[in-house]
Amino acid sequence: MAPFKVSTVSLEKKQNLRIKYKRAPNAFIKFFTNTRSNRSVWGNILLVAFLTFLAFLFLFPVIFMVNNAFKPLHELLKFPPDIIVRTPTLNNFLELRVIFQDSVIPLSRYIFNTVFILVIGTAGQIIFASMAAYPLAKYKFFGSEVISRIIVLSLMFSPVVTAVPNYVIISKLGLIDTYWAIILPAFAATLGLYLMKNFMEQIPSSLIEAASIDGASEFVIFWRVIMPSVKPAWITLFIVSFQTMWGVTGDMYIYKENLKTFSYALGQIARVGIARQGVMAAVSLIMFLIPTITFIIAQSNVIETMTTSGLKE
Amino acid sequence: MEDKIRVYGFKRNKDLYLMMLPFLVLFFIFVVLPVSVSIIISFTDFNLLQFPKFVGLSNYRRLFLNDDIFITAVKNTFVIAVITGPIGYLLAFLMAWLINELPAKIRAILTIIFYAPSISGNVYLIFTIIFSGDPYGYLNAKLLEWGIIDSPILWLQDTQYMLPVVILVSLWMSLGFGFLAFVAGLQTVDKTQYEAGEIDGIRNRWQELWYITLPNMRPQLMFGAIMSITSALGVGDITVALTGFPSPNYGAHTIANHLLDYGSVRMEMGYASAIAVVLFGMMVFTNLLIQKFIKRVGT
């Protein structure tokens, strides 16, 4: 009886192993063990090697910037500079804090201004652009073709010369020295609409017609059917819009010091001169980190969508 | 091919018009109006102080016949755009597509890494150090050490090297908004189509790309094309950051630099607007050509 017993144990073990493997198939391992018949293992290995190499190439300036923020002044002024900091210090950040403590307008005020513009500006841009994109993407009606064309054309006109007419319009509307001087033009940014429209064009019309037969109004279709299926698009728009609004200084339209943005304040501090090099490096890092963190959070949402969206014919 | 629902009459579809209304009103005020005004100003002599004076086509005549620097700027812009436009576009797509093959988490990390240069504001700093004309600048130091050159090269001051350096940095910056749109677009391609393709005998990645992925990505390809065109022909920030403004001997002077010169330094708004209109025309023309090409993809 004994040998028989041994064999059952090993079978059990094997089964356990198999279950374990099934339960936790590491995506990366799976990727290399060739799950699809039209993928070669060597192709995958080559791909990963190539991308890793490129990733380092792209990260190089970022690594340099991060290190700069922690360099003492004498290391910053050295030429040629070292990439990696030798004696890391937090002095640059402490100095920045001291400057803000001495400033007439408290730091919190600048941050509030930026947050207000960021939240309203980004949310509004996504909502207005998507709402206008839906009819243009999925319907043919009087004027739809013309509007679409004008929108594409407007993407190609240089903002340098429209700055003057824009200023006149904004001052005539009485928006100078208000947040709206920054927010309202952002709502009209055509890039977002064009992105949303292009993604929405991929949604099959039969889906909309089916929803409409079921009695859903256009607003309901837009909110329940269209927006969920283009989630990758509006998350992308969110990232780019956030990045732009975060960097807005508004110095053309806002003159009152207490309405100025955080990026404006940071920029002013960094502009003073060579003695502020350290502070400038710290400022660069902060300016980089906030949108990057937002990006990471948003991007992980894009990946989540992938598994949930199934709105195709 | 076009999958759109035809609608008639205003009353039955007032919801659709209502949805577009807020955007269209703002779009008219903040985009259509200023652009139209700029186009009109391009036919005038306007210095911001006196009321614009109508001068017909004289701004355009001056631009093409009497402004040698503008012709230099057009040449430089073409050299940069012809290389960075197509290569940057293909690079953005290629990277998005390669990343898409990877497991989700690694894809997310790589997307962020490749997009990082577009987030950080002062990426040019490192390039001015790499390409510094000083014998201790990174590149010169290495080349001297290896004995490839005898004396340091003024990468950013010598007209011979300025454009190649600008092109290199532009390419390195080319993974921007278009790249993100590609990454997002690849994720909306129906997965069942790939499975069906596998059964129907699609043998490798390249066939899958041509027959399934690209046709499904047409809208994103159009979007990316616009982004590439506007950034390639509108190149300007990079040349200023690397070679200064104006660049030595106008060696890296672009149309956008010329525009900036007249629009915000010399304040000749009429002339600046004429430059903007010409640049606009070039972009529109390029876009028409590329849209035609994209329509044929995957067939």
UniProtKB/TrEMBL annotation, chain A:
According to its UniProt record, which protein family does this protein belong to?
A: Belongs to the binding-protein-dependent transport system permease family.
PANTHER family noted in UniProt = ABC TRANSPORTER PERMEASE PROTEIN MG189-RELATED-RELATED, BINDING-PROTEIN-DEPENDENT TRANSPORT SYSTEMS INNER MEMBRANE COMPONENT
InterPro entries documented for this protein:
MetI-like (IPR000515), MetI-like_sf (IPR035906)
Q: Which residues cross the membrane?
A: 45-66, 110-134, 146-170, 176-195, 232-254, 274-298
Q: What Gene Ontology cellular component terms go with this record? A: plasma membrane
Q: Which domain of life is it from?
A: Bacteria
Q: Where in the cell is it found?
A: Cell membrane
Listed Gene3D superfamilies: MetI-like
Chain ranges of the ABC transmembrane type-1 domain: 111-298
Membrane topology term: Multi-pass membrane protein
Entry keyword Lipid biosynthesis:
no
Q: Which UniProt keywords apply?
A: Cell membrane, Membrane, Transmembrane, Transmembrane helix, Transport
GO BP term, pick one: transmembrane transport
- Does the record carry Transmembrane helix as a key word? yes
Matching entries from SUPFAM superfamilies are given as: MetI-like
- Which species? Caldicoprobacter faecalis
What is the name attached to this protein's record?
ABC-type glycerol-3-phosphate transport system, permease component
Note the Pfam families from the entry.
BPD_transp_1
UniProtKB/TrEMBL annotation, chain B:
Q: Does the keyword Chloroplast apply?
A: no
For the ABC transmembrane type-1 domain, which residue ranges apply?
Answer: 74-290
Which domain of life does the protein's organism represent?
A: Bacteria
Give the UniProt entry's GO cellular component terms.
plasma membrane
Q: Which UniProt keywords apply?
A: Cell membrane, Membrane, Transmembrane, Transmembrane helix, Transport
A Pfam family that the UniProt record links to this protein: BPD_transp_1
Q: What is its main location?
A: membrane
Instruction: Please name the Gene3D superfamilies in this protein's record.
Output: MetI-like
Q: Which SUPFAM superfamilies match?
A: MetI-like
Compartmental location: Cell membrane
Q: Where are the transmembrane segments?
A: 21-43, 78-100, 112-133, 161-184, 221-242, 269-290
Kindly state a single biological-process term from the GO annotations of this entry.
transmembrane transport
Q: Which InterPro entries match?
A: ABC_transporter_permease, MetI-like, MetI-like_sf
Q: What is the membrane topology here?
A: Multi-pass membrane protein
* The family this protein is said to belong to: Belongs to the binding-protein-dependent transport system permease family.
- The name under which this protein is listed is Carbohydrate ABC transporter membrane protein 1, CUT1 family
